[in-house]
Amino acid sequence: MSFVRDTYLVETPPPGMNVGVLGWLRGNLFSSASNTLLTLFGMYVLWTVVPPLIEWALLDAVWQGSGREACLVEGAGACWAFVAAKFGQFIYGTYTFEERWRVDLAFLAGALTVGLLMIERMPGRRYIAVFGLLIYPVIAYILLTGGRFGLPEVETTLWGGLLLTFVVASVGIVVSFPLGIVLALGRRSQMPVMRVLSVIYIEAWRGVPLITVLFMASVMLPLFLPAGTNFDKLLRVLIGVALFSSAYMAEVVRGGLQAIPRGQYEAASALGLGFWQANLLIIMPQALRLVIPGIVNTFIGLFKDTTLVMIVGLFDFLGSIQVNFSDANWATPQTAATGYAFAALVYWIICYSMSRYSMRLEARLNEGTRRA
């Protein structure tokens, strides 16, 4: 005996605890006893930390003032007036005041180039990339250093602040990336000499800290040069940073090369492609796509490691902030905390932007490999 319904049931909505805000909370924050405890603990931490931080950074903060007296008010929070007064030095260092427009122009041209490259459907992106890699560095160098086309010369010893941070980081990134690829290919080469040289280079640079490299490049290197031979301190730092970061980049790229199936190499050989053609057209595009997170992680680490140039007497963004702590006109209990908070905010914004763009790029490049 069986029963067959001859009418449809009335459609009813799903239980309220499984959809909407309540459903999300139940599924993500209170799905189990352990998750519930962790959620409650996290809420307690946020309740303990966030309100006092907001009160210090915003509600009780001092936003205007021309000296320390403005931030010495009882109960005063962050001294943002200090940041406003010293903002120019944080960005330009001691760069000649009348020539700072050149830095602004270089920043604007660089930001415009990067912005256009980030637009996926931008026509002529290839030419924009060539401009950014070959032409823009020359234009930026002429603008920043001067001495040509009627521009007064500005010595690199006057560079500092965010300008110096961007210069060191961008040069390190642009140089270390292709050099790291060459080293990764050399370490996997079938030629013993090339492989041994690549291994020695990578392990030698990875075996010493960056602060030692900077110290050697700035202080020790001139001792080994012929008498009377010397070159710019910033140039020495740029070379040291680029060579150091290229060793780490080589290992990241090598990880991507090892993840490529052997069949891809065999298919390239079957097509009659040579070593460089196979790597340029088939192997390397797949390897780089696999290691995008590692590459961006290396870039972010390099950007933050630029703070170490203070050891050789160059004052980057963080160094410029620390130097201004000694200004007696702004000596308050909140000055140092406010300066470090401002530095942390700027570093976080830049690094987070790099991370988000890498995630977007990774998702776009992996669209063809997703399973339906």
Descriptive account of the structure:
The structure is a single chain. The protein is mostly helical. The chain has a domain at 78-95 and 154-365: Orthogonal Bundle (MetI-like fold). The chain has 14 helices and no strands. It has helices at 20-28, 33-59, 80-92, 100-118, 125-145, 161-187, 192-206, 210-220, 233-258, 262-270, 275-290, 292-305, 317-323, 335-365. Helix 6 packs across helix 12 (292-305). The longest helix is centred in the last third of the chain and has 31 residues, at 335-365. The radius of gyration is 27 Å and the shape is globular.
CATH topology of the domain at 78-95 and 154-365: MetI-like fold
* Architecture (CATH level 2) name of the domain at 78-95 and 154-365: Orthogonal Bundle
Uncertain runs are none
The biggest sheet amounts to: none
Q: Which helices and strands, and how do they pair?
A:
Layout: H1 20-28, H2 33-59, H3 80-92, H4 100-118, H5 125-145, H6 161-187, H7 192-206, H8 210-220, H9 233-258, H10 262-270, H11 275-290, H12 292-305, H13 317-323, H14 335-365
